[in-house]
């Protein structure tokens, strides 16, 4: 059951991060003409993510009920499921996860204009609320408020960074079409500016979260939790290096038929691969005790 929980957490977090990224990218960053051009590709990415978010939310609720109860039988017992939703901190948050995931499926299933702003708002709530469960609930009082706030900011900043990477690949493809090149360059500049802020928030809140969790434990190289946390920090560090190279080496080489666009595409793909490792480690860390 623990392995299944890790897999489902990975799916749920990855879907939430991607929905937030594509919602913000399409709803707030892409100019109108480019937004319409990327609508098909973005919807083909977002709608499966919304279904994954909903299905993984349902499955996680069942597995959490089984974990809190007496195994697989309780995982499908309606009475236990409703008890988890009604009487636990996890359940209080998960009610909203289920509702938000369902709304995202319904909105993205339609082809109405304006769905991307709604997607961005709902995905913000879905991703941000994940910071209100897990290790963030250990602390109480003022420290608890700081911990939860830091977790929420960490998730949203990570969602902007990681979740925008695939939409950026769509944007690179649009740059090859002359009628969309100018709009695509505008998006790249916007992402570059906001990306600096997002990475800074990821670093600051990551350091704060680590200190809050480990301030009483201290460093322990034999701790599995700390080993995995260090691995996560190392991968994020490598992603930051790729992001710096993408911005300050590859982007300036785009104009005049330079090799920068293809290099930027490969660098972005590398960030996407590395981000999968980060999400995987977060999914495992969520089930481990920091102490």
Task: Report on the architecture of this protein.
With about 290 residues, the protein is an all-alpha fold. The chain has one domain (about 1-285): Formate dehydrogenase/DMSO reductase fold (Up-down Bundle), CATH 1.20.1630. It contains 11 helices and no strands. The protein has helices at about 1-30, 30-70, 70-75, 80-85, 90-110, 115-130, 140-165, 165-175, 180-215, 225-250, 260-285. The longest helix has about 35 residues, at about 30-70. The chain is globular, with a radius of gyration of 20 Å.
Give the % helix.
over 70%
Number of strands: 0
Task: Specify Rg, calculated over alpha carbons.
Answer: 20 Å
Order of helices and strands: HHHHHHHHHHH
- CATH top level assignment: Mainly Alpha
Number of domains: 1
pLDDT average, as an integer?
Answer: 90
Structural class: mainly alpha
CATH architecture: Up-down Bundle
Q: Please summarize the sheet with the most strands.
A: none
Anisotropy-based shape: globular
Helices and strands, with pairings:
Elements: H1 2-29, H2 32-68, H3 72-75, H4 78-87, H5 89-109, H6 115-129, H7 141-163, H8 165-175, H9 178-214, H10 224-250, H11 260-285
